[in-house]
Amino acid sequence: MSYVLNSNICDTESVLVIILITSHAGDLAFRNKIREMFPSSEMRRLGMRRAFLLGRINKMTISAKYLNIELHQLQEESHLNSDIIMGDFMESYKNLTYKHLMGLDWVTRYCQKAQYVFKQDDDITVDYYQIAEFLTRPQDYFKMNSKITIGQELLSAGDKFVLGKSLVNMEVIRDVTSKWFVPIEEYRANRYPPFVSGWGYFTTPSAVWDMIKLSHSEKYFWIDDVHITGTLREKSGVPLIDMSAIFTHYKGQMMCCLTPANAKSKHYQPFWCDFLVGPTNDDMQLLSLLQQHSRFCHTTKTCVRRNSDEELNKTCVVTDVNLQGHNLGKGKAVVQKMKL
């Protein structure tokens, strides 16, 4: 694997978790906002390192913001922040698997001392303070709530696992009008193996090593979540652990973490947010508020966890207001018998 730009972000120190963020070369301003909200100095204090994964600038793109970026700007960004990894391939939706594999391969070469790997997209919110607690003390983190089974599975999984929002029995889309259309020549099976959402998932360097080794002989497939956390994971014998309980697909549920009706217990103690990973739909204000809330909980030690009957999965009412900007996608009709 060759790199146009590389990083020594892991240096020689032991690292709790290396965070790989898929980004687009043209999103310089967005990366700077992420750095501003969560500086590298704070990440180091938590035992974390962060690297942005990029491809080469593709001047054939139709988006104006991606046309106004030059390699020398990215070189300056890399020199200033030491957190850019650029692969020798063009930025393209069909090249996301190359970008994803590049990041994992980089871990095996330059961040071998990391205990964990967390891969995420750049347009979601991640509670890094809770992640630090979750990875260092999983048995305490999940104590006294319904998510405890995740902690037990994690403790018994050993040094190889993929932990994320699991997607099971997902059909291969043959509709030519869909963004996710896959012709039978590219993927013959009608269903994908179990995989996890690429919004954010955890794994380990040992699991990464096995999946990268297999990738050299496995046929390339452009849907990176399926190819890497599905096909490569399954064929490598790496177990999948579901973390749906601490993952949401809804911006509205992230907003519920902050609303007065949901943010405090009956004893007026502030709650930690229930979710470690969730969308903000490019709402930078919401992203900032969630980071501030998490930092407050971490520094003041005054926040508490919700009891099972208080969890937002059960109590958060998602309205049309907090659904704005969220694409619900296509639904499916369900017919079932009902007793009247």
TrEMBL record:
InterPro entries the UniProt entry points to: Glyco_trans_31
GO MF terms, alphabetically ordered: hexosyltransferase activity
GO cellular-component term (any): Golgi membrane
Subcellular localization: Golgi apparatus membrane
Alphabetical keyword list: Glycosyltransferase, Golgi apparatus, Membrane, Signal-anchor, Transferase, Transmembrane, Transmembrane helix
The keyword Glycosyltransferase belongs to this UniProt entry's keyword annotation: yes
Domain of life the protein comes from: Eukaryota
UniProt keyword Chaperone present: no
A GO BP annotation: protein O-linked glycosylation
Assigned EC number: 2.4.1.-
Protein family according to the UniProt entry: Belongs to the glycosyltransferase 31 family.
Protein name as annotated: Hexosyltransferase
Protein source organism: Allacma fusca
